[in-house]
Amino acid sequence: MTEHKLLQLLSEHNLKIATAESCTGGLVSGLLCDIPGISAFFEEGFVTYSENAKIKNLGVSAETIAKYGVVSCETAEEMAKGAAKRANADCAVATTGIAGPTGGTAETPVGCVCISCVVNGQMHSERLMFEGSRMEIRMQAAAYALEMLCRQIESKYKGVSGSCEL
């Protein structure tokens, strides 16, 4: 189970974690808070739903948003970096996307979510497509974000084996 593996990895490598969420609206943080003992590693998360909040609270560049869009790996990467920096954390995960049922475009349809995580300076980002209702898209994105973070910690610290899949 991802949650237990994530806690093991955070503990083993003494890593502090932060979150930066837009479309998931706190669900990633909520999943973390469901893990007994996570308070030793998770102190704060940021829900930055608007462009202005991303700029003001996470230091996302207005130029990045203008050039790549709010739903982009570039924006998600700046969100993750900003959350890690502001929370003085070793790693962070960020989500930004279109949960629907409206708001999608041909380039960024409903269900498109960009997720980025940074682990001690090592960044990984993915642009994903999820299907379902608004809540289903948000829940899938939140769960995937924690799985991605788990995989990135394992990648950064190669000596740990095991699966982070749900």
In summary, what is this structure?
The protein has 166 residues and is α/β, with parallel strands linked by helices. The protein has 6 helices and 5 strands; from the N terminus they run αβαβαααβββα.
Structural overview:
The protein has 166 residues and is an alpha/beta fold. Helices cover 43% and strands 20% of the residues. It has six helices and five strands, in the order αβαβαααβββα. It has helices at 2-12, 27-33, 51-58, 62-68, 73-87, 134-156, and strands spanning 17-21, 42-47, 91-97, 112-119, 122-129. α1 runs parallel beside α6 and α2 packs across α6 (134-156). The longest helix is centred in the C-terminal third of the chain and has 23 residues, at 134-156. The N and C termini lie close together (5 Å).
Q: How many domains, in number, for the residues?
A: 1
Characterize the largest beta sheet: strand count, sense, and whether it forms a barrel. Answer: 5 strands, mixed
Total E-strand runs: 5
What integer value in Å does the Rg equal? Answer: 15 Å
How much helix is in the residues? 40-55%
Structural class label: alpha/beta
Q: How is the CATH topology named?
A: Maf protein
Low-confidence stretches: 160-166
**Overall pLDDT score:** 94
Number of helices: 6
Strand order of the largest sheet: 2-1-3-4-5
CATH class: Alpha Beta
Determine the N-to-C terminus distance: 5 Å
